[in-house]
Amino acid sequence: MNIRSEAVGDLSTFGTDPIGVVLVKVLGIFVILVLLTLLTIWAERRVVGRMQMRIGPNRVGPFGLLQSLMDGVKLALKEEIVPKGVHYAVYWLAPVISAGAAFLTFAVIPLGPTVSMFGHITPLQLTDFPVSVLYVLAIASIGIYGIVLGGWASGSTYPLLGGLRSSAQMISYEIAMGLSFVAVFLYASSMSTSQIVAGQEHLWYIVLLFPSFAIYATAMVGETNRAPFDLPEAEGELVGGFQTEYSSLKFALFYLAEYVNMVTVSAMATTLFLGGWRAPYPISMWSQANTGWWPLLWFFGKVFAFLFVFIWLRGTLPRMRYDQFMKFGWKVLIPVSIAWIMVVAVARYLRNTGGLASRNLLFIASAVLFVVVVASYVMELRTKKREELEQERAELEASAEFDPFAGGFPVPPMPGQTPQASRRIPVTVTAPAVESGEEQ
Amino acid sequence: MNGEQIVFWICGIFAVVGALGMIISRKAVHSALWVAFTMINLAILYFSQQAAFLGTTQIVVYTGAVMMLFLFVLMIVGVDSSDSLIETIKGQRLIGTLLALAFGGLLLGSITSVARPTVVGLDKANEDYGTNIQGLAHLIFGKYLLAFEVTSALLITAALGAMVLAHRERWEPRKTQAEQMRERTLSGHPTPLPNPGVLARNNSVATAALLPDGTQSQESLPTAFKAIASEDSASKPNEVTQ
């Protein structure tokens, strides 16, 4: 087996930069992430506004672009309220961990091929090593500490519940996320991000490993606590979740971490499944598309597509119930993931030993998997207490006329029923205060 | 001093401080945090020794999963609970001391003999398979496959055992959403109770708002409930707050 030549990729371009170039890259990543956060918040408010038939922020700067900058400045200058019962050291540490971990991940995301920067030929990526995708998982698991500790240190019930929920959710979905990476590792023969991008030169893994992509795309929404999986901050149940007791700059840090995480998971999805910085098909015909600084454009284009989907989801879907959400993670995503990994491993083995054309096998298996998942869902829907549904419908039809006191308590009309108009003549009330005034 | 030595002295000191902090701190959650801190420092040390896989695994498994579970339990058990020093198992302290000494001896033995088989260096160790990961994979899924499988069986058994111990038999069927709804509606408080500090008896949409003079505002009711309010007020089950 020819493992060695495949696996030992060319990571030699990393770790040779002079310190100046490294500092420029670090600063560049930091600035990009902060700017993207501001831009994403603005885009989110505008897009959701559009979806809800309103305008959204449009006053500060052209198209309201500076709105989130102004909000950030305002947030930083606001009075900070620290509740009495907090454990101050941990309370202080939590947002720092959260935001710090969020920024760390981007160090291993490849933004482009090698370019010339101040006369040095260097890759558009801060660093890379043989297990950089695992490093992303590791940093994500440190980031959870910020949320758990924030919830605990606030010394209050809602934040504690929110923190527990959120960490349980992130840990569960991290498993599904990690499993979705496995198929990519098997196909790229590497765990380094730049090698994975290099492995997608001819075919993006979204085509080859679509089930993995679907699982990752679901898990990444759960991982970032975004709608429809934003249960930790379900305002109807938990006020603000883990960030209830936070204000001013600490709250801003949590907010920043959420948006940076969104950008990071989108960038990971791009890197692992959408060919990273490689140009999409029609553009890739142009011979210069994958050289120089152009790939930055394709990369951020793909990241923005993911960010738009995040916003779209938030504008479209209602929040899931917590138990259903956990059930979905553990009983659907993880088993499907494991089954798919088995298929991929078999396909990979066949390819290594020169058997069947493994690509065809993968396409067939992914189609079968898709059909099974859809069929099981449809079957469940169909068999779900059909008689009861019919009985309910019959009852509904029988009592077509609206009874405002059905069952002995006031009820709103059912679908299809019309409420009776008020038979009461509007009463003009004489105010008691006025009456007493008249008596005097 | 080269970079690796600088990292060693910084992270080594941090790791020891974390370990001491774990023993010294009074709150269980603080102890858990110190352990997590120590583990992250160890992971950085692994990284600086070019064992990136070991470092990331250390963080994912120990910091991310094991310590997180500890934190969970500590947080659920309670913020202020402290350990009682009463022995619940007879002779626990003695056995504990003996086991600790034995483990210490084991560690001492392996640490002192660390240079016994001559150190060959990373390049030589990786000669056969290219990188750490490939080498590890060959060892785990080749030479030590049985040990690996046995360990995984042990872990699965432990997980199943925990599930069996924590399992509670359900003696009555789970209430459906419709049943819960019916119960709640007939309980006299169909809607959530008003928030603490609010002077009201209920929180339903059927409750009319009060005008400044204390009378009810008909405009504040939805159309469907205007029909109800128009019924004889004596038959109203859900009386409006005065």
Question: Could you characterize the architecture of this molecule?
Answer:
The complex is a heterodimer of chains A (440) and B (242). Chain A is built from 17 helices and 2 strands. By secondary structure, chain A is mainly α. Chain A has one domain (11-340). Chain A has a two-stranded antiparallel ribbon with strand order 1-2. In chain A, helix 2 crosses helix 11, helix 3 (67-77) packs across helix 11 and helix 6 (157-188) runs antiparallel to helix 9 (210-223). The termini of chain A are far apart. The model of chain A is unreliable at 1-9 and 433-440 (pLDDT under 50). Chain B is mainly alpha-helical. Chain B folds into 3 domains: 1-85, NADH-ubiquinone/plastoquinone oxidoreductase chain 6, subunit NuoJ (Four Helix Bundle (Hemerythrin (Met), subunit A), Up-down Bundle), CATH 1.20.120.1200; 135-167; 191-242, no CATH class. Chain B has a two-stranded antiparallel ribbon with strand order 1-2. In chain B, a hairpin with a 5-residue loop joins strand 1 (209-210) and strand 2. In chain B, helix 1 runs antiparallel to helix 2 (28-48), helix 2 (28-48) packs antiparallel against helix 3 and helix 6 (132-143) packs across helix 7 (145-166). The longest helix of chain B is centred in the N-terminal third of the chain and has 26 residues, at 52-77. Chains A and B meet through helix 1, helix 5, helix 6 and helix 17 of A and helix 2, helix 3, helix 6, helix 8 and helix 9 of B.
